[in-house]
Specification:
This protein has 20 helices and 28 strands. With 645 residues, the protein is α+β, with helices and mostly antiparallel strands. The longest helix is centred in the middle third of the chain and has 33 residues. The relative contact order is 0.07. Bound molecules: 3-[3-(1H-pyrrolo[2,3-b]pyridin-5-yl)phenyl]propanoic acid.
Length: 645
């Protein structure tokens, strides 16, 4: 061991050790949670470092692999993390980056560090939360290496060979004692994020390989994400199952008052508003100053154009900001040096200066487009007028729902079988497909805390309905009143008031077949578009009724999939009768309680939203006109959807 490489324990490095211990003691403070989300967050954290290197102009390819043992390898062709002595710390810079909480790449003043995960905690947190991590750096003609165990350095940085390329490779194995729920990576979750990053950072190639699985040709599952055009391609991807009403994606990219701003938008023939915003590649789903800047720029510019062009001459009703965003799909992406994040989930941008930067950028971009494309301009303005007209109708319908919600005594829907408990935290409501299953559920439930609301047949596809149709729909009105959720302020017609919510568990209970999963998807679409906060609060669940009853003599056991069915049959020693449940209706009240409703034995799947932008795309695709992409998706997810063969 050379003198230089011998670890020297300065006061700072002892502090570093304490930092790492703190991450292990309070992981959620650093990565949000230690469930599925936190597990995937580790990957994003490492990839973000490589994205920073790419944004600094030194790297164009990043590869991510899920290895057979669920460890992850992230590799880039950047300059390589510096390996020389870090004067202040007395050890290699690589070791500082890997073991000092909050070190990041900050010692390099020139680095253009704008990326960084939700918490921007750095790769050292990943190291602390990994059973094992190996860093390999190609730099100065040599291959440098260091390994760590739960964040503890195993040996000083050493050279293990020579090479003429540069880059950084990190392989980490998440610690099972930290991630107790699961350490299994979901390919689609990572793919969605890598695709998003490729669109947000054009010109960077990001590949993803799943070394746990091979395709029919014997190759590992693999995808390459690359975008030449960035956000305009992202918008086209998000809207691929909707019909555009203008000829091009409207987009701009530039710097305003020192803030890099990128915007892309298109109008489609739907009624939904799909605005997505990002700060430093992080989805800011609570919005913030960049989003309000976008809204202001959009409203102002379109209003001005419509006024000046005389298109509003005969319009008697007032047009609101909302009307300009119906059928709009748009992405706003800004890079902010020192972002201030606010809001419940710290995903709301607070920096005031960003608002005018974005609104100016949008105004310039739109003004140019409207002037150059008068036909599109006319189409947009006509759409806005129609939206305003429909909004007036919607307001009336909404006020009806509101009135019903407020008069809660006797105001509950007749079909609701309520529970006797009144503390919302203890109450559950089952939304049940069909009146007959509703009847069984009503008999089987524990009426103390379980309420039943039967829903008739296929509920309205809110993805394709105008707002006022949604608020006029009987089943939807029943859901609002039963749940005690009220909606709509003048400023934001879809703003929810959850202060009087009557149940903290809303359980969607449908048949385990194609029709049932379609209905569940329709109900979920409704929650996603009109009661998203209920999902975000973690109040929405899906029930999982069993698929089989395996019988032998007096013995009865339920199975939720084919494997389980075969196992049970084997355990019973063969000679069993198997009943396939086609629907909830085939179960009696007791069976339904035992398998699906009794909190002691049931499995409820909590509905969570992994990636807001992708969820939006998936819902529009699932509920849209085009059949092939929907079939593809359902087939890929057949495992979850319980498709009836
Ligand atoms: C700071 C300085 C330099 C490189 C990096 C950070 C760097 C960090 C990571 C993390 C993942 N991949 C990375 N690639 C590079 C180099 C400064 C120099 O060479 O002058």
């Amino acid at each position: 061991m050379s003198e230089q490489n011998k670890p020297q324990y300065s006061a700072d490095s002892i502090q570093a050790l304490e930092g790492m211990e703190h991450v292990r003691m309070r992981p959620s403070m650093y990565i949000g949670d230690v469930g599925v989300r936190g597990l995937h967050h580790l990957v994003y954290e490492v990839v973000d470092n490589s994205i920073d290197e790419a944004l600094a102009g030194h790297c164009d390819t990043i590869s991510v692999a899920i290895n057979e043992d669920n460890s992850i390898t992230v590799k880039d062709n950047g300059r390589g993390i510096p390996v020389g002595l870090h004067k202040k710390e007395g050890v290699s810079a690589l070791e500082v980056v890997m073991t000092k909480i909050g070190a990041g790449g900050k010692f390099d003043k020139d680095s253009y560090k704008v990326s960084g995960g939700l918490h921007g905690v750095g790769v050292s947190c990943v190291n602390a939360l990994s059973e094992h991590l190996k860093a390999t750096v190609h730099r100065e003609g040599k291959i440098w290496q260091q390994e760590y165990s739960r964040g503890k350095t195993q040996y000083p940085v050493k050279t293990v060979g020579e090479i003429d390329t540069t880059g950084t490779e990190v392989t980490f194995l998440p610690d099972t004692t930290i991630f107790q729920q699961t350490t299994e990576y979901n390919y689609d979750t990572l793919a969605t994020r890598m695709r998003e990053l490729a669109y947000l950072n054009k010109g960077i190639t990001i590949t993803l390989t799943d070394k746990r699985r091979k395709d029919d040709e014997g190759e590992f599952i693999h995808e390459k994400f690359y975008s030449t055009e960035g956000l305009s391609e992202f918008v086209r991807y998000l809207d691929s199952t909707r019909n555009p009403i203008i000829s091009h994606v409207i987009s701009m990219e530039g710097e305003k008052n020192g803030t890099p701003v990128e915007v892309a938008m298109i109008y489609n023939d739907s009624y939904a508003e799909n605005l997505h915003s990002y700060v430093n590649n992080i989805n800011t789903h609570e919005g913030g100053t960049h989003l309000s800047g976008f809204r202001r720029g959009l409203t102002h510019t379109l209003k001005k154009y419509a006024d000046e062009s005389g298109l509003l001459k005969n319009v008697k009703f007032e047009i609101s900001g909302d009307d300009f965003r119906e059928g709009l799909t748009a992405i706003v992406s800004v890079k902010v040096g020192e972002p201030q994040f606010e809001g419940q989930t710290k995903t709301k941008l607070g920096n005031r200066e960003v608002s005018s930067a974005v609104s100016q950028a949008v105004a310039e971009m739109l003004t140019d487009y409207l002037e150059e494309n008068p036909n599109d301009a006319k189409t947009i303005v006509q759409k806005v007028i129609l939206a305003a007209q429909a909004r007036h109708a919607a307001r009336k319908a909404r006020e009806m729902v509101q009135r019903k919600t407020v008069m809660s005594i006797g105001g509950l829907p007749g079909k609701l079988s309520d529970c006797s408990e009144t503390d919302p935290a203890l109450c559950e409501i089952f939304l049940v497909e069909g009146d007959s299953a509703g009847g069984t559920a009503k008999q089987g439930r524990d009426r103390n805390f379980q309420a039943i609301l039967p829903l008739r047949g296929k509920i309205l596809n809110v993805e394709k309905a105008m707002q006022h149709k949604v608020f006029e729909n009987e089943e939807i009105k029943n859901m609002f009143t039963a749940l005690g959720v009220s909606i709509g302020t003048e400023e934001d017609p879809r703003a929810l008031n959850l202060s009087k919510v009557r149940y903290h568990k809303v359980v969607i209970m449908c048949d385990a077949d194609v029709d049932g999963s379609h209905i569940a998807t329709l109900i979920l679409t409704f929650f996603f578009r009109y009661m998203r906060e209920m999902i975000e609060q973690g109040y929405v669940y899906i029930a999982t009724p069993p698929l089989y009853l395996v019988k032998k003599g007096q013995k009865r056991e339920y199975a939720w999939d084919d494997n389980q069915r075969d196992m049970i049959a084997q355990q019973m020693g063969g000679g069993v009768t198997i009943q396939r449940y086609k629907g909830l209706g085939e179960m009696n009240a007791e069976q339904l309680w035992d398998t699906t409703m009794n909190p002691e034995f049931r499995t409820l799947r909590q509905v969570t939203i992994d990636n807001m932008t992708e969820a939006d795309r998936v819902f529009s695709m699932l509920m849209g006109d085009e059949v092939p992409p929907r079939r593809d998706f359902i087939e890929r997810n057949a495992k979850y959807a319980n498709i009836d063969a």
